[in-house]
Amino acid sequence: MKHINMKTAFLGLSVLVSGLATVACSPENPRLTAPPVKYGVVPQQAAVSVKRTTPKVDILFVIDDSGSMDDEQAALSKNIDKFTESLANQSGIDFHIGAVAIWDTITYKDMKKDYAQGQLRRLKYPDGSPMPEGTEPFVSSQKDYDSELAQKGFKTSKEPGWLQVLRASLKVGTEAYNEKWETEHKGGPNYEEVFSPVKAALSEPMRSGANAGFRRADAHLVTIFITDADASVRNADGTAFDLSSGELADFLRAELGERYQDEVTAIGVLSRSTDDPKERDPSIRYASKGPTEAVNIQSFIRHFGGRWMGLRDKNYGVALGEMGRYVRSRTLNRPKVDLESIPEWGTIKVKLNGEALEPGDSGWLYDDSRNSIVITRDLQELGRPAQFELEYTQVTSAGLNAGRVSAP
Q1: How far, in Å, CA of 372 to CA of 70, rounded?
Q2: I want to staple 135 with a disulfide (CB 3.0 to 4.6 A). Which of 16, 24, 30, 131 is the partner?
């Protein structure tokens, strides 16, 4: 995916926005090529578009569903309010939160499973019972869970409904990867594949099928790995059976473009080498040079400049809260707003909470490779929810022919 030099692009754009006359480009300029088909037919008459939105984040929990993870899932559920506090309280961030389980394509690969690889887990009521089929399999800040829970007899006076649903839903339970699963409901994968469920969740057919609506193109993406094992990426003979950390990073680069590392946050809640051996998965319990940690997962997190914490840290809740604040800061760093149609050169106007922003490094920039607006204003010091209002005139056929187009 091609990206242009933003500062160069806006030398002309900022002048035009200030009110100077539109300047046509030469026929050889790539900006004069026809807009991509996905943006539709160029209209004959100018149409003004207005879009109002807030910063968005899509958070994907990748949870180990081994039998050894019951207590850890409970700890995550109990402390999840520490994580979401900075996202939900007065932040104005539009969030989606969903969970998938790790995978195992080797052990009992022919066993019928309740969920496909990368399929978001079904949401649950506070008592652990499943929500109705057809319910979106992710918690959304835009949905009224309070009313639904009230109809079912659940109280929402102490905690908002969405948080109660999230608490229950993060307890994904154990996937019984054994021949007695129908009666014992115990077990779990032997080879924990951590990266392949992420790719599957964000790819077709899951993306527009079972996971429809979860992933939004202009939302910051967060992956959170919860496991007492490491990502199993190689068989004993060296052959691969799961994605490596680099292969998952390459997938995200292909999806998001060369600036993908700015658009993804990676976090881990992982076993430490100092944990009691009995509390760590055999895959990282012993090694020739002593106890190891989840080095493959850490490699992926490190690639994105992310962070990880201990799965059994004494200050677990405090550390999880710090992770939530980290996600908030990343979400508010240069958020993007995709446009539904191509704007005419010089017609873009951007407001933040009613205040006009100027194009540039402290206001906004236009990314013509994605037809989106990048908010460059520092939102960390705003002190209140950020609401954007974008107004622009869709380029017309005449404007296109005259060179008044803001995108290739």
Answers
A1: 43
A2: 131
Task: Give pairs for 23-27: CB < 8 Å, separation 24+.
Answer: 23/403, 24/402, 24/403, 24/404, 25/403, 26/403
Question: What is the Cα–Cα distance from 226 to 63, expressed in whole angstroms?
Answer: 5
Q: How far apart are CA 94 and CA 207, in angstroms?
A: 19
What is the mean predicted confidence (pLDDT) over 293-312?
A: 93
Strands 355-357 and 364-367, by their bridges, are unpaired
- Nearest alpha carbon to residue 402 among 139, 99, 27: 27
Phi-psi region of 213 (alpha: psi -120 to 50; beta: other; left: phi over 0): left
Read off the amino acid at residue 185: H
Token duo for residue 216: 């939004």
pLDDT tier for residue 246 given thresholds of 50, 70 and 90: very high
Identity of the residue numbered 170: L
Share of the chain above pLDDT 70, in %: 75
CA angle (265 as vertex; 263, 270 as ends), nearest 5? 165
Q: Which domains does the chain have, with CATH numbers?
A: 6-54+340-402 (no CATH), 56-331 (3.40.50.410)
Residue 406 to residue 179: CA distance in whole angstroms = 60
Model pLDDT for residues 69-91, shown as the tens digit of each residue: 888 999 999 999 999 998 887 67
Tell me 2's DSSP state: -
What's the longest Cα–Cα distance across the chain? 75
Name the amino acid, one letter, at 280. R
Among 383, 329, 326, 372, CA closest to 39: 372
Beta strands in 292-380 (DSSP E): 307-310, 336-338, 349-352, 355-357, 364-367, 372-375
Q: Are the beta carbons of 140 and 219 closer than 8 angstroms?
A: no
Q: Tell me, what's the pLDDT at 33?
A: 42
Six-digit token string for 71? 């207590």
Phi/psi at 128 (5° precision): 90, -5
The count of other CB atoms within 10 Å of the CB of residue 265 is 25
3-state secondary structure of 196: helix
Using alpha carbons, list the distances in angstroms from residue 124 to 96, 224, 279: 15, 20, 28
- Rounded Cα–Cα distance for residues 251 and 185 (Å): 34
